Amino acid sequence: MSDVFTRYELALQQLLARLGKQHPRAAEARTLQARLLENIAAARRHGDTESRRAERSEIREALDLLAVASLDVTFNELVFPPAPHPAKLEAHGPLAPELVRIPAGAFLLGSDPQQDQDALENEQPQQRLYLPEYDIARAPVTNAQYAVFVRVAEHRAPKHWLLEEPPQGLADHPVINISWHDALAYCRWLAEKTGRPYTLPTEAQWEKAARGPDGRLYPWGNTFDRAKCNTEEADVGGTTPVGRYSPMGDSPYGCIDMAGNVWEWCRTKWRTSYQEAEDNDLEGEAPRVVRGGAFRRSAGRARCASRFRLLPRDDWGDHGFRVVADEASER
């Protein structure tokens, strides 16, 4: 078994072996080991409850102090080796996303109620908007990609993960239960490790990548098709692997899962209509835009122009994010 429990057990064994039976603190380490292994066994049988997580956290802190005092090495370094040079990060799993180049040019932002019967007031007035070129991730960030961030950056894992591991069998599903702050922290970390200006897309960047320059209602055209996306109509009831509906559900630029599966965070602050200027400032706790709909939302929310708002701290079970590499965001 290669889950986090096994890594903890191996680290504990390594700690005890390095202390040695004659070490004055060996008995203390064995007592802590016994408590932690009992706690881990209970979590495996009955689930990872809040009380068990709290107890494991206290025990791990004690083991960390013990390891530093006795061996001058942190317990975390026994569980996870020190983070490698950025060039070697791929050994932990997939890192940089596959990017799609969105060419400079104009596109239609928003909805025309004469053309779209589902158009909402917050999607109006429709306007032609010019954007310089940028690169956007072909797919949302997956559990596997986010797990590298959790391990290497020691960032808080999504609340539904068991300790620091994503659910088994969902490595290629989009990561969920991610707040806007989590998504932005991932972008900043990825930018630091790769040297590219990764950030969250503005809602205009997101919409252009989803619908192309011709103003289509869905990534594939103007008619909804339940076979081309994971929405409520598909009756899946959860996320699907990224690319499950590719290529038939792809956008004109080849982006996947831009209709359904998970809501995706944007950099942009919420505005009630397009008569207000776009605000992409990263400060403050104002609601932020999410795009794309989700597996538990209907076809109307999967339209390219559909938009919704969430507080930056919200971390619900049907939204994730994708990244852009945008040179302009660095200026």
Radius of gyration (Å): 23 Å
C-alpha geometry: elongated
Low-confidence stretches: 81-92
How much helix, percentage-wise, in residues?
A: 25-40%
Main pleated-sheet profile: 4 strands, antiparallel
Enumerate how many helices there are, as a single number. 7
Q: Note the run of SSEs as H and E.
A: HHHHEEEEHHEHEEEEE
Mean pLDDT equals: 85
What is the total domain count? 2
% residues in beta strands: 5-15%
Number of strands: 10
Name of the top-level CATH class of the largest domain:
Alpha Beta
The helix-and-strand class reads alpha+beta
CATH superfamily grouping of the largest domain: paralog of FGE (formylglycine-generating enzyme)
End-to-end gap: 47 Å
Architecture (CATH level 2) name of the largest domain = Alpha-Beta Complex
Strand order in the sheet with the most strands: 1-4-10-5
Give an account of the 3D structure:
The protein is an alpha+beta fold and about 325 residues long. The chain has seven helices and ten strands. The longest helix is centred in the N-terminal third of the chain and has 22 residues, at about 50-70. It is elongated, with a radius of gyration of 23 Å.
Defining traits:
four-stranded mixed β-sheet, 30% helix, single chain, 2 domains, 10 strands, four-stranded antiparallel β-sheet, paralog of FGE (formylglycine-generating enzyme), 331 residues, elongated, alpha+beta
Structure in a nutshell:
With 331 residues, the protein is α+β, with helices and mostly antiparallel strands. Helix content is 30%, strand content 12%.
